[in-house]
Amino acid sequence: MEQEQSELVEHFVKQASASPNDHALASVLVQATSHPSLLFFSEILSLPNLLQLKETENSGYLDMLRLFAHGTWGDYTSNSDQLPQLVPDQIVKLKQLTVLTLAETYKVLPYDQLMQELELTNIRELEDFLIRECIYAGIVRGKLDQLQRCFEVQFAACRDSRPAQLGSMVQTLSNWLSKSEILLVSIQEKIKWADATSEIVKKHREEVEEKVEKLKKFVKVS
């Protein structure tokens, strides 16, 4: 999946970078957010020429791309009057991304919560969406529990990190690095102790062997 994502991102980055005007660029963004396999949009979002969409009639497409990078279906419905109308493939994609966002936080997703977030009307429709658009698509794995009316998440693909998450991610990585350094020092000390112990054992064995040889010679002479 990572290789496929990398190739898709590279493709759309090139397409967007080569767009001659804001209309062409908007068209590329629609293609990218409609692609059934593309999950990451931050690299496209960081392109300098996307700024040309501001102050144009296509400025909403920049907000649309931000929505696919970090938002959910609920974010779209709350601001749909300020955003371009989504085509069916985009609607499916944004609902898939919404499931991923929920799966990042919760490992058990109640059906009622999912139906509300995705604006689906019944359990059959929800389960069909989870199976066909999420599990078969390879973006999540889990168990559909009809008795408990929930989806138990076993695996979920990642989404683009939100800007507000970067500080927390840096802190988490810093803590991990500090703990790794402490662990490395501890391992090195244990290696030194093992080496020293091995040397002591070796010396003791040599002393014992030397005494045995002396005893053998003594017995032989006697």
Automatic annotation (TrEMBL):
Q: Where is the PCI domain?
A: 1-158
Which Pfam family, any one, appears in the UniProt record?
PCI
GO annotations of cellular component type: COP9 signalosome
Which keywords annotate this record?
A: Signalosome
**Source species, domain of life:** Eukaryota
State if Lyase is listed as a keyword: no
InterPro entries recorded = COPS7/eIF3m, PCI_dom
What family is this protein classified in? Answer: Belongs to the CSN7/EIF3M family. CSN7 subfamily.
PANTHER family, alphabetized: COP9 SIGNALOSOME COMPLEX SUBUNIT 7 (PTHR15350:SF5), COP9 SIGNALOSOME COMPLEX SUBUNIT 7/DENDRITIC CELL PROTEIN GA17 (PTHR15350)
Instruction: State what protein this is by name.
Output: COP9 signalosome complex subunit 7
Q: Which organism is it from?
A: Cajanus cajan (Pigeon pea)
